[in-house]
Amino acid sequence: MSSAQTPDDSLLDEFLEDRGHDTQTWERSYNKKQCPECGGLHDVNATDCGVCGWTP
C-alpha cells in the first residue's frame, strides 16, 4: 500500500479541516513514529506522544 497522498486524499483532508477536524497523522522516521507537533520519536505501537501529549 502506498503512503503517498492522492489528489482525492488532499481534497478530503481540506473538506475535513474546513469543518474543524484535525487530519494530521504520525510521521515516519526510519522504524519509529515521529510526532508532527514536537518531533518526538516513539515506537511504532505508540498511540500518543509522550513528550507533548499529541494524539492523532
TrEMBL record:
Residues 1-23 are annotated as: Disordered. It comes from the Archaea. This is HVO_0416 family zinc finger protein. It comes from Halobacterium litoreum.
